[in-house]
Amino acid sequence: MKKLASLKFFNLKLLLNGESSRGFSKFKKNYKLKAELGRGGFGVVYRAVRICDNTLVAVKFIERNNVKEWAKLNGEQVPMEICMLAKCSKVRGVIRLLDWYSIPEGFLIVMERPYPCIDMFDFIKGQGKISEEMARFLFRQIAMTVHECVQNRVLHRDLKDENVVIDLVTGQTKLIDFGAATLLRRSQYTDFQGTRLYCPPEWFLHSLYLGREAAVWSLGVLLYNSLNGRLPFRNEKDICTAHLLGPLPFFVPVSAEVKDLISKCLAFDPFQRCTLDAIINHPWVKQQPLSWELLTKNKAQKKTSDKMEKSDDHISETLGEEQSGSDEDRSHPTTVSVSQIPGSSDEGVGSSASCSNTPPKKQHKEYRMAKTSLLAPPTSIEMKAAVQASKTPTQFNVHTALKNQRQIKKHHSPQPPNSTVLTALRRAMTREAQNRISGVFAHD
Length: 444
Ligand SMILES: Nc1ncnc2c1ncn2[C@@H]1O[C@H](COP(=O)(O)OP(=O)(O)OP(=O)(O)O)[C@@H](O)[C@H]1O
Known about the structure:
- With 444 residues, the chain is α+β, with helices and mostly antiparallel strands.
- Among the domains are: 28-112, Phosphorylase Kinase, domain 1 (2-Layer Sandwich), CATH 3.30.200; 117-295, Orthogonal Bundle (Transferase(Phosphotransferase), domain 1).
- Helix content is 43%, strand content 14%.
- It has 17 helices and 12 strands.
- It has helices at residues 2-17, 24-30, 80-87, 120-127, 132-151, 201-206, 211-228, 236-241, 256-265, 276-280, 283-286, 292-295, 299-313, 315-324, 380-391, 395-412, 419-443; strands at 31-39, 43-50, 55-63, 70-73, 76-79, 97-103, 106-112, 117-119, 154-155, 164-167, 173-175, 182-183.
- The strands form 4 sheets. The chain has a 5-stranded antiparallel β-sheet with strand order 1-2-3-7-6, sandwiched between helices.
- A hairpin with a 5-residue loop joins β10 (164-167) and β11 (173-175).
- Bound molecules: adenosine-5'-triphosphate (ATP).
- Adenosine-5'-triphosphate (ATP) binds at residues 37-38, 40-43, 45, 58, 60, 95, 111, 113, 117, 119, 158, 162-163, 165, 176-177, 179, 335, 372-373, 375.
């Protein structure tokens, strides 16, 4: 009833404002929507192009019903995600919010889209695990970004490899998906919307956590995962008891320094855990990383490239596989909603509800999780452009190469269907049209 009333009120607003500056028609005028880019628990992300200058953008559609927290942005009521992105607009390592639109069904968030790019989950998966040097290159950017977000009073709350996008030309990382983000405060949080296997033990044991301390824990999980190609903990029980079993096992030879950093991030006691400041000042992080060009010239990078090439040829099959979960290597670290907080469900410590996978055959792959969002990996054309670009690294050549390749792609690659949001958008259009018609009748 309440929902219906607010929807009616929203439609009424549309009627009164006529062509809203954030309405669907304005969106359609400004952007050309293309194929689906990724999909998560709370939204669908599309490739799109800004019509006025051909800028490549990503458009995330979030359903109004899925919005858990709201905030005010320049006097307008918006989902917290939009507000948090806006607050981080000056943080280099955060994906830039370019625009947003409001339709009866939900919101369209327009963001920058690095090209070509890959998310860190697929990047690690493509290589099995990444070298310590590569981990340093990526992790120090991510840690600095999280630190800057916190300085802007933004707590991301869903730090994981899926939520980091890597620009394949420069190696620059961009933090995405602020759907669980909230304002940083000193006091404890008693709600959680992130991914359970990246969540600190105090949440499972006491149903609360402190913002910065929880972020440091997630960074520890992320770093361990990058190096080992698997997560450190299989379930909540592991998260809460692993410290009793001594140091975490490592499945690759890594330096004592990085082990030290991981153990400090994953300290069981949040008050003993290192701070974000301590992470970015840790000797392992401070060590000058190799350049992206050098790092990507190795064999492992070629492996990803080959894989991408393969997945480009079979892009629809790959997506199909991911959706049906047939890839044994990929089980589910689920992004949970508020309704799944401890106490609100019957899963307690020791439950493996967040990773409902059957035990895989290979021990090493056991904790390598599937992502909830299904990103189509870059195409071979994109990869080739990136490789070409890194061989001739002048700005002019990089972009000319990409532009040429993009034009070739235009003619050859069919776009997968993007039915969900299109249906929603179509429905929105009809409703706007309907509103206009009923508006005319009302005036008559
Ligand atoms: N600006 C962007 N540029 C490139 N890729 C993006 C961008 N935004 C999102 N993606 C891709 O789309 C996927 C889904 O995006 P996002 O995580 O924001 O959706 P979500 O529904 O909130 O997901 P989740 O359920 O994991 O929270 C990402 O993992 C990423 O691969």
